[in-house]
Amino acid sequence: MKSASKRVKIVLIVVALALAGVTALLISLFSNSSEWAVNRRNALLYNSAGEFVGSGAIYDTNGAVLSRTVDGSRVYNEDASVRKALLHVVGDSQGFMSTGIQNAYETELSGYNIVEGVWELKKYGTGSSITLTVDSNACKTAYEALAGRKGAVCVYNSVSNTHLRAHETRGKLV
Fold first, then answer.
1. Which residue, 52, 76, 156, 167, shows the most beta carbons closer than 10 Å to its own?
2. DSSP state, residue 160
3. Runs of H (alpha helix) within the chain
4. Average pLDDT, stretch 84-105?
């Protein structure tokens, strides 16, 4: 009788370990699935040259196309000045610029979601598009104003009238 209860305990331990393993696998699947979906080996998203081509378009705030996929290849804005001015924002299709939108938001651009995976990409041939708050015309103007010199251009909104009145009453003007 002792040997039968010993065997039952061993079987219960094995079953508990198997359930723990399956649970760990499911947790890993749900928490890392977006990273797995946009892995460079995914032929739906990357071409043979390693370019991220299975993604939606990237637009600026005015609707100008900054980057999109055409015939299995990633293309950028036709204006060379716009491309140069926004290179650090848009990034490259091969992931060399890790801070660019194409790399930082590749999961969103691929159209991935946890329920359907990349089904939208399979069905429509393109992922989700992103519209940025960047104005390509303003960036182009700033880039051309630098005229090849090193430097930075800062643009900001002026102070609102309410803010000015509050400071004027204290004898200060910002």
1. 52
2. P
3. 2-37, 80-85, 87-90, 101-104, 106-110, 119-124, 136-146, 161-168
4. 82
